[in-house]
Design a protein that fits this description.
- With 180 residues, this protein is mainly α.
- The protein has helices at residues 6-15, 20-31, 49-55, 72-85, 87-92, 114-123, 125-137, 140-147, 151-159, 168-179, and strands spanning 45-47, 94-96, 101-102.
- Strand 2 and strand 3 form a beta hairpin.
- The protein is globular and about 45 Å long.
């Protein structure tokens, strides 16, 4: 299981026209810095039942319907249960990898299928970072905020209206100051 290195972060930052400091900051604050589960080696996921309900006929049956933010073993158990009912809906209703990009963004990010996006993310931590940056770049206001180091605007678009509740903008600003 390959970890994301500072050299990788720097090279990928350059691919997107960003600085190492900005990308490192986003990785540290927004990602949890884990691409793969150290216990199982599987990609980090967060299965979202409320999204699955929208994509698949709803019938609260099984582990998927009661999933909360859990340890990876529970996430995979819920995901596998949903996957057995509707494969594409399960993948679309799950955020994957380092930057926790939702599966339903597969088309927006240029993939031919949700499965292709998952395969790309499962291949490496570097691909997971690229996937996260593709997601950021897909929203012009969010990407421009990152370029301009406007942490409040970036946090708003990345985390939603509740970003202040968790001090994402302050945490981003303080972490960036360490690397800039």
């Amino acid at each position: 299981m390959k970890l994301l290195t500072n050299t990788s972060i720097s090279l990928i930052a350059q691919e997107f026209g960003l600085t190492y400091a900005k990308v490192k900051t986003v990785v540290l604050i927004e990602s949890g810095s884990q691409a793969f589960d150290p216990i199982t080696g599987k990609i980090i996921i967060q299965f979202e039942p409320h999204w699955f309900k929208r994509k698949s006929p709803y019938s609260p049956s099984g582990k998927w319907s009661v999933n909360k933010v859990e340890k990876q073993a529970a996430e995979w158990s819920a995901f596998n249960d949903a996957f057995s009912k509707n494969q594409n809906a399960a993948m679309e209703a799950t955020s994957v990898g380092l930057m926790q990009v939702m599966g339903f963004h597969w088309k927006l990010l240029g993939f031919k299928s949700v499965g292709a996006m998952w395969d790309y993310a499962k291949a490496s931590a570097e691909n997971q970072l690229r996937l996260g940056l593709l997601f950021i770049k897909s929203n012009k206001k969010m990407f421009d905020a990152l370029v301009k180091t406007d942490w409040a605007t970036f946090a708003y678009y990345y985390n939603g209206e509740q970003y202040r509740k968790f001090n994402y903008d302050v945490r981003l600003k303080n972490t960036y100051a360490r690397f800039a």
